[in-house]
Amino acid sequence: MSVRKASQNVSNRKMSLQERATYQRPSRRPTIESKRVSISDGQDCVQLNQYKLKSEIGKGSYGVVKLAYNEDDDKYYAMKVVSKKKLLKQCGFPRRPPPRGQESVQGQEPRVLGPLERVYQEIAILKKLDHLNVVKLVEVKYCELQANGGVLGGCLPVMEVPTDKPFTEEQACIYFRDIVLGIEYLHFQKIIHRDIKPSNLLLGDDGHVKIADFGVSNEFKGSDAQLSSTAGTPAFMAPETLTDELQSFSGKALDVWAMGVTLYCFVFGKCPFTDEYILALHRRIRTQPVEFPDTPTISNDLKDLILRMLEKNPNTRITVPEIKLHPWVSKNGTAPLPLEEEHCTVVEVTEEEVQNSVKLIPSLSAMILVKAMLRKRSFSNPFEYLARKERSMSAPGKLLMESRDGLNTLHKEFSIKSD
């Protein structure tokens, strides 16, 4: 079965932005908590429950993101599989996140979370968010010993950077308007994303961009987050985060800068500041003015918006409400975006919800399977990999031999039920 790619044809969008302004969306369905995991080996993929795992669409320090086809609803999703072992190496101890205590207030830096704690926070946040331009957490699969798996409503990244096929200005405008609404919604929920970039923007089957990956996001109280730590992808970091001086900076302004770099990528296929050396890249971001290539030619309104978003001084950088009113975004007022109150409603994530963000599926067999997948950065048949080894350092010999003896019956689905 061929993999259906998300269309970039703007005519496929199911609803115009103007229609959405008056559209009352139904409440989102609760995230599915998988209490049963079944694994089977297909001809061209591994299948987890109803999901056929296809091509890799992203990877990071702790895991991979796979394109997953759901046979039940005939839709594609992004499945994020996180290696708990790698997270525990960063954390230093295998436990649930401790209570966060007093939450951050205006002007106070929130407590720095460890990698494992961030996973639980990300799951808890995604369970509650409900917006057309923010990815939905459809299902959570969890194994206490090894990995977290999240099925996200979305498909392929909107763009891979660099590329020699950037978007037309019309395409870029439509996708960017989605990003603006998604970021306004997150800021309304008092969440700073901190890692906006094309690879964290998924293009759904409905033709709309979905903001994904909340692994380094920050929650705040008050009107803005005052941050002092660096996070995110170097080429998308704002200049105020790259100074040697200890200072706090606006979280909202960080997201606006990253949106500006993303918009530049949309129309030129590359980042505005690049260098193979990280310190040289930081220096360019801090000091080098934005330059526009001769081709493709873009409008003066678009140039003005990019320059205002990539303003070095965060105090004079354009804000999200101002971006919504910019002539390039609003098409000179003929296509205004919905007001904040028309597409934003408050959700809150409690400490209890973070603690209960995942449910245990005690399954050593599933853990070994996922571990093999992560080690290889591949979702090909992992038992072929296990069979080539006489012993596994992560599994008893008896269990491994049982897996080898079962190679002839891999086409039969086996189930692992929680106790």
TrEMBL record:
<dbReference type="GO" id="GO:0004683">
    <property type="term" value="F:calcium/calmodulin-dependent protein kinase activity"/>
</dbReference>
<dbReference type="InterPro" id="IPR017441">
    <property type="entry name" value="Protein_kinase_ATP_BS"/>
</dbReference>
<protein>
    <recommendedName>
        <fullName>calcium/calmodulin-dependent protein kinase</fullName>
        <ecNumber>2.7.11.17</ecNumber>
    </recommendedName>
</protein>
<dbReference type="InterPro" id="IPR011009">
    <property type="entry name" value="Kinase-like_dom_sf"/>
</dbReference>
<feature type="compositionally biased region" description="Polar residues">
    <location>
        <begin position="1"/>
        <end position="25"/>
    </location>
</feature>
<dbReference type="GO" id="GO:0005516">
    <property type="term" value="F:calmodulin binding"/>
</dbReference>
<feature type="region of interest" description="Disordered">
    <location>
        <begin position="1"/>
        <end position="35"/>
    </location>
</feature>
<feature type="binding site">
    <location>
        <position position="80"/>
    </location>
    <ligand>
        <name>ATP</name>
    </ligand>
</feature>
<dbReference type="GO" id="GO:0005524">
    <property type="term" value="F:ATP binding"/>
</dbReference>
<dbReference type="GO" id="GO:0061762">
    <property type="term" value="P:CAMKK-AMPK signaling cascade"/>
</dbReference>
<keyword id="KW-0963">Cytoplasm</keyword>
<keyword id="KW-0547">Nucleotide-binding</keyword>
<feature type="domain" description="Protein kinase">
    <location>
        <begin position="51"/>
        <end position="329"/>
    </location>
</feature>
<dbReference type="Pfam" id="PF00069">
    <property type="entry name" value="Pkinase"/>
</dbReference>
<keyword id="KW-0539">Nucleus</keyword>
<keyword id="KW-0112">Calmodulin-binding</keyword>
<keyword id="KW-0597">Phosphoprotein</keyword>
<comment type="similarity">
    <text>Belongs to the protein kinase superfamily.</text>
</comment>
<keyword id="KW-0067">ATP-binding</keyword>
<keyword id="KW-0723">Serine/threonine-protein kinase</keyword>
<keyword id="KW-0418">Kinase</keyword>
<dbReference type="GO" id="GO:0005737">
    <property type="term" value="C:cytoplasm"/>
</dbReference>
<dbReference type="InterPro" id="IPR008271">
    <property type="entry name" value="Ser/Thr_kinase_AS"/>
</dbReference>
<dbReference type="InterPro" id="IPR000719">
    <property type="entry name" value="Prot_kinase_dom"/>
</dbReference>
<dbReference type="GO" id="GO:0005654">
    <property type="term" value="C:nucleoplasm"/>
</dbReference>
<keyword id="KW-0808">Transferase</keyword>
